[in-house]
Amino acid sequence: MKSNRLARHALAALLTLSVAAPAIAQSDKMAPIAIPAQPNAIALNTGPLPGAKNKESWHSQYDSVFARNVTQATLTPFLPDPAKATGTAVIVAPGGGFRTLSMQNEGWDVAKALADRGIAAFVLKYRLNQTPADMGEFEKSMTAMFSAVARPTTRPSPEEALKGLAPQIADSRAAFALVRQRAGEWKVDPNRIGMVGFSAGAMLTVATVLDGQAKPAFIGDIYGPLQPMTVPADAPPMFAAIAADDPLFAGKGFGLIDGWMAAKKPVEFHLYGQGGHGFGMYPKKTTSTGWFDAFYRWMVMEGFQTPKAN
């Protein structure tokens, strides 16, 4: 299918993320683990991934855990102490090149930190492209891809590339719909539901804006592609962060940021001197670890942390 080929081409660098270490524990190997208990995960009922044959499996790497071959999407709530709750909510989209999901470093740990600040957080485990069921074969396929993929000199526009993300966009839509449906129960203001994504999850976050149906109140783009795109008329405020030494997306200009500014949409951009790709919530000695506090302060500045009036 042409659209899927376009998406694969545009995401070529992203697909290496499972073997591109976050600049720590470079020698860590993937090790299969049992699927962790996820008692609070809620099925989004977006259906099984079309054509999927391999079942969901998990592995550990870099002192974190990853999911792959996800065929059924879920959303896991991390709710704040009611005494601290502000009514703001954030859907968290981990990255992993649409082949894996960094569930701990870019999912659960982010959600816990948000909940600690009074923000209801929801980790989106979206459906993924299929990979070999055997861990050894999976590692080989990722290593081969990492070795073979040179960053293309030309890529399709984000609008073209996102045509291949229909299952993931459907999962994102369903996540927003569920949070709005249960907003009263979860003490969430339906008009203050945002989304933050990491790498591939950042691409899904931007795709959710372009799709035009879920309408996030604000978005966070953490080390995602920054190439130019057509900014929708109703584009939400955006926070973006990337490290200057990111091997995948740094050094290609800041077209996404320029577009938001040209459209006169609120945007804040942090370019950290070091941090590599995939830093997420890892404790590192680089200023990139400050992204979360900056993101929180930005939400406060934009008025998204004003407690909901009773």
Structure, described:
The chain has helices at residues 2-10, 104-116, 135-148, 158-161, 166-181, 183-186, 200-211, 255-262, 291-301; strands at residues 31-33, 42-43, 57-61, 64-68, 74-78, 89-93, 100-102, 120-125, 193-198, 219-222, 238-243, 267-272. It is of the alpha/beta class. The chain has one domain: Rossmann fold, CATH 3.40.50. The strands form two sheets. The protein has an eight-stranded mixed beta sheet with strand order 2-5-8-6-9-10-11-12, sandwiched between helices. The chain is globular, with a radius of gyration of 18 Å. Mean pLDDT is 87; it is low at 1-27.
How do you describe this structure in short?
This protein is α/β, with parallel strands linked by helices and 310 residues long.
CATH architecture: 3-Layer(aba) Sandwich
- Overall structural domain count: 1
* Tally of separate helices: 9
Instruction: Supply the CATH superfamily name.
Output: Alpha/Beta hydrolase fold, catalytic domain
Shape: globular
Strand content: 15-25%
Strand order of the largest sheet: 2-5-8-6-9-10-11-12
Distance, first to last CA: 51 Å
The helicity comes to: 25-40%
Helices, strands, pairings?
Blueprint (H helix, E strand, L loop, with lengths): L1 H9 L20 E3 L8 E2 L13 E5 L2 E5 L5 E5 L10 E5 L6 E3 L1 H13 L3 E6 L9 H14 L9 H4 L4 H16 L1 H4 L6 E6 L1 H12 L7 E4 L15 E6 L11 H8 L4 E6 L18 H11 L9
Parallel strand pairs: 6-8, 6-9, 9-10, 10-11, 11-12
Antiparallel strand pairs: 1-3, 2-5, 3-4, 4-7, 5-8
